[in-house]
Write a structure and sequence with these properties.
The complex is a heterotetramer of chains A (406), B (288), C (343) and D (239). Helices cover 76% and strands 2% of the residues of chain B. Chain B is an all-alpha fold and 288 residues long. Chain B has one domain. In chain B, strands 1-2 form a two-stranded antiparallel sheet. In chain B, helix 2 packs across helix 9 and helix 5 packs antiparallel against helix 8. The radius of gyration of chain B is 19 Å and the shape is globular. Helices cover 71% and strands 4% of the residues of chain C. Chain C is built from 14 helices and 6 strands. In chain C, the strands form 3 sheets. A two-stranded antiparallel sheet of chain C has the order 1-2. A two-stranded antiparallel sheet of chain C has the order 3-6. In chain C, a hairpin with a 2-residue loop joins strand 1 and strand 2. The longest helix of chain C has 27 residues. Chain D is of the alpha/beta class and 239 residues long. In chain D, helix 3 runs parallel beside helix 5 and helix 4 crosses helix 5. Classes of the chains: A alpha/beta (406), B mainly alpha (288), C mainly alpha (343), D alpha/beta (239). Chains A and B meet through helix 3, strand 7, helix 8 and helix 9 of A and helix 1, strand 2, helix 5, helix 8 and helix 10 of B.
Chain lengths: 406, 288, 343, 239
Amino acid sequence: MSVNRRKVLKGAAATTALLAAPSVLRAEETIKLGSILDTSGIFDLYGKPMDKAVDMAIDEINTDGGIAGRMIEKVAYDTQSDMALYTQYGQRLARQDKVDVVHGGILSASREAIRPTLRKNKVLYFYNVQYEGGVCDRNIFCTGITPAQQAEVLVPAAMEKWGKKVYVLAADYNYGQITAKWIQHYAKQAGGEVVQVDFFPLDVADFGSTITKIQDAAPDMIMSVLVGGAHLSFYRQWAAAGMNKKIPMASTVMGAGNEHVVLTKEEGDGIMLAYSFSKELDTPANTSFLERWTKRFGATDDVHELAVATYQGVHLWAEAARKAGSVEREDVIAALEAGASFDGPTGKISIDPKTHHATFDVHLIEVKDQKMAVQKTFVQRPPVDTQTVCNLEENPKDTTQYEIDI
Amino acid sequence: MDYSAVVVMEICYAIAVLILISAGLAVIFGMMRVINLAHGEFLTLGGYAAIMSNQAGLNIYLSILVAAPLAAAIFGFLVERLIVRFLYGRLINTMLATWGLSLAMIGGFSMIFGNTTTGIATPISGFALGNYQVSGYNLFVIAIAVLVIGGVYLILKTTRAGLVARGAMQNPEMAQAFGYNTSRVYMFTFVAGSALAGLAGGVMAPLVGINPAAGAAYIAKAFITVISGGTAVISGTLASAGLFGFVSQTFTFLATPVVGEIALLVAAVILLRLLPTGITGRFLKDKV
Amino acid sequence: MLRETAFSAAIGLAILVVAPLLFDDIYTLTVLTIYGLLALSLGFIWGFGGILCFGQAAFFGLGAYGFAIASINFADPWIAALVSLIIPALFAAVLGAMLFYGRLSDVYLAVVTLVVTLILFKFMNSTAGNAYKIGDARLGGFNGIPGFDTLTLPWDSSEYLINESLYYFCALILLLAFLGLRWLLSAPFGRILVGIRENELRAELVGYDVRLVKTLAFAIGGMLAGMSGMLFANWAEIVTPALFSLSQSAEIIIWVIVGGAGSLLGPIVGAFVLGALKFFLGQQTLVNNLFVLGSILVVTVLFLPRGIVPTLTPFFKRHRRRSRAAGNGKRGRGSRRRARHAR
Amino acid sequence: MHADAILETRAVTMRFGGVTALENVDFRLENDELRCLIGPNGAGKSTFFKCLTGLLTPSEGSIYLQGEDCTGIHPHAIARRGVGIKTQVPSVMNTLSAHENIWLSARQAQSSREANRTTAEVLERLDLEDIAYDEVATLAHGKRQLVELGIVMAGRPSLVLLDEPAAGLTGEEVERMVAVIHELNRDAALVIVEHDMHFVRSIAKTVTVFHQGRVLTEAPVDAVMADPAVRDVYLGKRA
């Protein structure tokens, strides 16, 4: 199927290329980096800082002399938190703007909306977001943290501290479902027991009955995979009932949208997390990164995991392009598979050639006083979940997003 | 035993929330036959007002109970004068115009406040009910709902203003003939409805947090509750909030929150199929 | 009549053929055409049947999901296309029968259609688990269904309808739908439908089964919306629960009212103009898109309650054809109100 | 049992909540008969009409059309059995033309071609040809009454119900109405609710008097007008 389609596309691309000859010449001068993010609408609390991160990374690369002497130019579209617009702008980036690489996409649905388009048009794609894992596609690099990378660190640590009975609350979509499975997997491995898993659609904001149910089950700890603005209410209502003093909690997502700053100290304190980035990570690289961010944008209030992943994603791509001496898709892929790496605020980040997912440091974190205090660092964790299903070295033609069965 | 007490309290709480979020819409619909589809954003506005004034140092109860309804009332006044008053008697047109207003307000909120969810901590701590921890703020919400319903009832039944309002709504020409300015009555009614929406937003803010699109979660439920209740403000809202609160919480406890929400919606469809003009369109006709 | 139809067909064809030359972005043009069909479906039942459906997105979503699911399960995408027409039409017929045989009108009708859409939205959103499967198709919950096979040329199953060919296919369907509805409105069924919009009671008292006629019109509207959903699925190559969302329904209503509910052309124009506007607003960050759309709706309702096209028409057409069954939305509402009082 | 009447009601009772609007109404109308219903406001005449057209279903009792039990069937089904009604306030399709209004009624049971012919005929009989293509909403009250009558005629009914056909008409228009009514009566039985006794006298032979939801009396028009009980009802002495 895709063969024929590609043929048609090639034909169409050739005709338009003829018509657009002058712009091809201009493209020799600058490198076009396509950015496609929700910088308005309900997901803009993720998208806006990511957009800033793209700008900052591009400027830094250009200040360092660009890539092989060529400067990078950003071509950005705001998808307004509307999935239909991803398809539209994705096509535009690939077919009209003819960018050399695309960074962006936030929700998994948005990534899936543009991934086929970019693959068919042979435009390299970087998805720099924490997500459920399992995408196996040679054209895409996923530099965000995946569930197993968090759960393998978080679950044993939390169980050791608090006890064996775990109650899981998860957002009812792909990410939540898959992360919940990994939590169950690692809980069992550590000799514990998951007493109950409850799923909540993303717009549920009333958790009264759930809090009662949890008390009825009397677990030793809660694992929260609750996502987004509505689910934030859970932490409030949990604290309002006084439960935060009775049953401790760990989470794989809380804090990714700076939830720990929105919540008060009383509501947030003591929640255990695992991320690759924390503002409180005390390394020279991170300190310098935050200083540069402050200098450019005034404050670091909005920096979060996804913004840093995006920043590192852009740099990682640039590093590979420099090594390859080209921004051609195949050259960049080869350089990344050969171990191109970037030393960013979270430490070293490189690509696992089998899965095109990233390997980086993961930190165990505790929320203290609206800050993410780093407890312990686990160096260079590979994407173990995607590795169980994906091997691009053996099947380079694979394009599936696998649902990992544990 | 403790468990059933907690469940009963949760059901009461669910009903109270429905009453609170619907009251403003019900007053406006019942009295003026106007559906304010920006109602959800009026709630959001109340929520922002409460959060902002609290962050500015105002006492939390004053923020919730005074600043929130006041802000919504002022905004409601502007909306009535600038938009709604040109559309009286055109139910569908008011719905469309206020829907537009609702979208514009969501856009406006995002431009002003950004899309981050903000909130304030609940001012009342939890307490133990037997073996269970229960949120004390839930009781506060229930109390406010009771006060709101009681207040609206008293105003409509016993005060002169309520009498004039009821009269003007039932027969504008006659009220006008008696020398009452119906335009002003409509205006006050709309402002009062807006204030109730703002109050609800303020009361809910500590529980659910506010973001620009937060109103969308309420408007559908409030709309359904009010229409299913019919045009009688008090008895209609009480009846449908009671029914839907009970149904949704029961199903939430038996299954999951989604099942609870879907049960509420299915109940509404069945109800309207059986009683096409709402509960009070069929029963309790002469009640307020 | 025939000559006029041929004339408008020719003009429509010319516009749709020329459009790609003027508008360099065929991909966006395609989706605008699809939105045009969606707006047309609501414009028909609202403007001519007097049925304001707050849940047109439900049929749109069902068409899109119907296609995606059927395409995964059946080898031939054209079978899937057929399925994606039948499902929304049937669903609309059943829902319509429930509404109209239950004598629901106005705001009550609005509530029920809205609630049904919400139920579908919430349901689709909570189908992320493995158990939600139709045949080989996982429903996917919030993330939707990606990666289904799209339409191919009927005579050559290896050539996909993409880019230009997809656009021309969509444009053709839009044109056919437009002409089909024009014909329908001049046929007895359409005239009866307009009569019912004008005075339901009277139509009933001369012996028309109002419930049946409205149900049929509603089903036709549902089918057209489903068809646009099917095309959308082909265009986007992914379907998500957002298709069922309240904001999707809102957008359809805004297209129709801004374009003008009393004509068939109005909704299409509304969809094209506002769809394009939304697309261009995405390229700037100064003003929030929702703010602009919402303000446009408020201003339209206040100052142009009949919409763009019916307001402009008199300037082009000095005198109306006298026997035409067309009216305008505003008056229609008034007489419906009277009809209700009479009952 | 004698031949089936075109309309017969047996013990029709209609209650709204606690209020009884009709009580045990027995009414019989022969083919080709023309009957007037009179009675003070609130006597139940309009409710009775609503029951006959199916807009209301009687709480008790039954309604027979040509011997067939039609209680509780839907208004459009009753219309299809040949019952046409002109309501008190003209119920027409306001933004459509007179032609379209009448055509829609004719088209219900006729083919399009036949309906065209019927429409032309009706327009001619009612002398509405010059305004046939005007929007009905723009017509004068009297013309709208005629358009509604045209709608009724085009359906070729066998039973016509007229609710106050003379209300609001000028003297000349009343005369025309009387003529139309007589013409209608050639093919159909009629029941006419009317207050204007003068008008009643000029058209009806038999009159049925409603009072407080019951049939008070049923007699030739002159006898009714001489009946002191009827006069009391109208003047309210017994009320």
